[in-house]
Amino acid sequence: MNPLTIAVVTPRYAVSGVPLAQWRFAAALAQAGHHVDLIIGNCDSDLTVPAAPGVAVRILDKPQVRGMFLPLCRYLRRVRPDVVFSAEDHLNTFLLAAAIVTRSRAKISGSSRVTPFDTYSDRPFTKRWLLRWAARAVAWRADALTCVSQDMVEQYRTVFGPATAHVCVYNIVDQPEARARAAEPVDDPWFLDRSVPLVIAAGTLAPWKGFADLIAAIAVLRDQGSAARLVILGEGPSRAELEALVSTHDLGERVRLPGRVANPLKYFAHSDVFALSSHVEGMPNVLVEAMLAGCTPVATDCPTGPRELLQGGRYGYLVPVADPSALAAGILAALDRPIAPAVLAEAVVPFEQHSVIARHFALIGR
Fold first, then answer.
1. Average pLDDT over residues 97-126
2. For position 47, what pLDDT does the model report?
3. How far is it, in rounded angstroms, from Cα 176 to Cα 153?
4. Which among 296, 345, 312, 363 has a CA at the least distance from the CA of 144?
5. How far apart are CA 67 and CA 63, in angstroms?
6. Per-residue pLDDT for 261 more than 90?
C-alpha cells in the first residue's frame, strides 16, 4: 500500500484508555509508513503528549467537542487527508458533519468507546435524544462504524436497530514497544519481594472504577489471614475518598496509591494478580496490558468487555460487580491457581498492531 495521509482524532489527551489507544494507533500507522496527524481537541494542562516518530500532533485547544467542528472543517479543506479515524460518539458525529459540509473525499472510520445506553436516549427532545438523531442523520457518510467490543456492537443494535453498521475492531495493545516496557526492571521493594502476594490495579481514581470495592476486598483478605498487598496506579477525583477508606480499614501497611507512573506495564509484570473492579467499561485496554505482561487477571463481570476478553473465565477470573467479598474470593483463587503465561498469550493475539490495522483498512476498503 502506498503511504497515505491519515488523521487520528480524539477529543482530549489524558492518561486514560481512549486517548492512549488513539496515540498508540497513530504511532502504529506512522510506523507502517503513513503520514499521520494526531488531532487532539484539548490536552490536560499538566500533561505533554508524548512524541512518536512520524506523528505530527495538532492540539486545537477546544475543551468542548462542538468547538472542534470548524477546525476540523478547515483541516479537511486544507490537508485533504485520505483517511480519518475518529474515536467517541459525539466527535464522530461532528467529524462526519464536517466531512459532509466540506465535501471531503476522505475515508472515515468512527469508533465508539462507551456504552450507547449512557450516550443516547429514547426520551423525546432531550439532549441525548437529539444526539441520537444527529448520529443517525450523518451515519451514511461513514465508511466504517466500529466498537471496541462485540458486546458493545450488540448494544448499538439495540439502540439503532439490527441493521446498524457497527462492527467490532479491537484497540491496538500488543506492540513491540509494549513488550519492551513490560520487560523493564522495577526497583520498588514491594514488587521485588515475591514472598508476599501482590495485587495491582490501574485507572482513573473515579467511582465507576470500583476501587473502593477493591480496597474493601483487601480488608476481607486480611481478615481471612492473607498477607496480600495492593497497589493502585493512577490519579483522579476520588483520591481523598480512597485514602480515607484505606485509613478506615487500617490498611496503611497493605495498600498504596502512588499516582501516575510512566510505565505501568513493568509493574504488572512484577505482580501476581491484576484486579479490574470496574462497574462499567467499554473495552478495558489495561486488562489486555496486564495479560500481555503475564499477570493473572481478576475482573468484575461488568458491561462491557471483561467477559469477552477473558472468554467467560478461560483467561482469568470473573466476579460480580460491586461485591468486595466476591472480589476477594476471585483474588484468592487467582493467587492459588494463576493462569499460565502461554494461555494468557492466546488472549492477547487479537490486539496485535498489524492485525488491528489490517482489519481497519479492510473495513474502509483501502
1. 94
2. 84
3. 29
4. 363
5. 7
6. yes
pLDDT, tens digit (0-9, with 9 covering 90-100), for 45-60:
888 899 999 999 999 9
60 grid coordinates: 486545537
Q: Are residues 113 and 134 part of one domain?
A: yes
**pLDDT mean over 100-105:** 98
SS3 147: strand
In-domain check, residue 355 = no
Q: What is the pLDDT of residue 366?
A: 83
Whether residue 17 has pLDDT greater than 80: no
Cβ atoms within 10 Å, residue 181: 19
Which of these, 15, 83, 29, 51, lies nearest to 285 by C-alpha position? 15
Residues 6+ apart with CB under 8 A from 114: 88, 89, 282
Q: What is the DSSP string of 265-320?
A: HHHHHT-SEEEE--S--S--HHHHHHHHTTPEEEEE--SSSHHHHTGGGTSSEEE-
Q: Which residues contact 53 (CB under 8 A, 6 or more apart)?
A: 27, 30, 31
How far is it, in rounded angstroms, from Cα 366 to Cα 351?
Answer: 20
In whole angstroms, what is the distance from residue 177 CA to residue 21 CA? 14
Pairing of strands 55-59, 167-168: unpaired
The reply to whether 52 and 119 lie within a common domain is yes
Same domain, residue pair 279 and 313:
yes
Q: What is the pLDDT of residues 202-252, one digit of tens each?
A: 999 999 999 999 999 999 999 999 999 999 999 999 999 999 999 999 999
Which residue's entry shows cell 515475591? 194
Domain containing residue 11 = 5-169
- For 215, the enclosing helix (H) or strand (E) is helix 211-223
DSSP string for 182-207: HTS----HHHH-TTS-EEEEES--SG
Task: State what percent of residues in the chain have pLDDT above 70.
Answer: 100
